[in-house]
């Protein structure tokens, strides 16, 4: 009897004979075949069969064109003897596609700036089996795609399901090839079975005739529209929602599905996902199941059906899934004939096929921590949004540099439109990462934590009462280079410390109030500059001490008023310069004591008026020089007393004294002048020696220059009338003197110039030495 099914294994064909096979195969499914084989060898090495190919060769109605089912032996077991008494041992092989190996590998890996197709092909490349890309669409590039705690198969499956990509297998004698598809054009007609006839099961036909024996069409209500939506922080006001509506022609066909987090960044991508999601939902709207003896029935291929009593079924269909039931007749004589059954599921090719999203998304189950990374030599690595890159602890492929992840958004204490708080995580710091929607490819940093390499700025637990913010200067900063705002909450030692590593700028647009309950100390090691645009008011209730070791310069362009109610003391150890461009008025209600240990120079370009309502006492320890460039007028309304302990010299071409009473008390009075005019009706001289004298020691001839005449002198209360007459021809002068109120006669004497210095007469009131000097100058 000719065999319909033959098995090809690594062993000789006589060592393993095909007995039966049951299995399923479908679009976007890992086929599984349970193949029973017979062998005369009960001692086959089971391990040697694992990972080896097993091929079933099935004879078809197409002469010379057998069909093959090719797969990998993933389980091989001895299942006893055939019928219990046969000399053949039954071996059962489980056969799966090479894609099944991806279920044996699990990984955590980050893919960046790749399309889903590129990611899938990168995963496939690690296995070295055949696949064929028959995709029609162009797929967007993903900035960030993560495989997380999932098998390679689960990872590529959920990506393909998301994008609307599905697959099937083509089988031949030497291999099976995975075909990636997203459109009907990726499916070929079934070789040799482009058209398949329908014959009802109750009709008698030849057992060798390959036809459809059962046909069970079905339709169901599916949603008529699908809306997807997402959010992109780079376009926060943008509308990413997209709707795909295509209700089928029946009642209640317009129900909508709305999906949030459609996993896309732009509206254009949303159109693709809305369409794919609706096609996924409606792919189940019209399906037909059946039973056939068509040995070429295979998933991923098309055929046209005919002879169906339902005319609408006579159209092209895509095979979605096939269940195989193959049993070869016994190898002993008189054995039962073989059975070759194919149960299938198809859908019209007018209805796009999409694999259902049945692979679960990996969930993190909560936040994780990661380390901030960046380029070598950098301390801070961020972008315009304040995002940073991280190295996840589970990422064994990352190099802990700027390529380890995408830029990850950072949560701050406050975030508004150009306001809020910014604390950019720095390279090497450990951060807490959560995931939007629990999706590992949408991380966001929500916090920061310390570790053994990144210790707190306070020595804990000893400084547990401290809290605050301590920064670090960058680049190359050490713990000693920081800005800080520290709060000390220890009872009795509460403190707020504000430290600026370099500059501190404070801006207050309205009022600012400072209240210090105790002492306030300010140390400025450099220069201080203050500008008050609207005036300054300072009130010191308990006195003020101001010490300026260097110079001080104050400029007041407007008026200045200074009121000191309880005395003022100013000590200036260096020089002081005061310039007043306008007038100055000073009112001192009390006394003024001014001590100048050095010289004083006062320059007044205009007039000076000093009003002293009380006494004016000035003591000059050294000399005093007063220069008046114009008239010097002095008005004394009361007595004027001048005490000179040393010589007083008045040197002037002309001296005029106008007084009603003029009293000069002195022991020695010398007046050197060319001309002296005394316009005094009553002149009293109380002195032992009274000289109006200018000595001339010249031997030349003399000429008359002047005449000195006084009407009366009061000498020790004795009235004396005196006149002096000089002549050019005489070598001397005549002195005429009459004593009034006395019995003495008029006294007249000629005094030679040689004896002119000492003349006089003893009067009754005491000795009087008179010296009268004529004021002469040398003649020609």
TrEMBL record:
Protein species of origin:
Variovorax gossypii
PANTHER family per the UniProt record, alphabetical:
PROTEIN RHSA-RELATED (PTHR32305:SF15), PTHR32305
Q: Which domain of life is it from?
A: Bacteria
Family per record = Belongs to the VgrG protein family.
- Classify the main location: secreted
Q: Where is the signal peptide?
A: none
Q: Where in the cell is it found?
A: Secreted
Cellular component, GO, one term: extracellular region
What is the name of this protein? Type VI secretion system tip protein VgrG
State if Manganese is listed as a keyword.
Answer: no
> What UniProt keywords are attached to this protein's entry?
Secreted
- Positions of the Gp5/Type VI secretion system Vgr protein OB-fold domain: 383-450
Q: Which gene encodes it?
A: tssI
Which part of the chain is the Gp5/Type VI secretion system Vgr C-terminal trimerisation domain?
Answer: 467-579
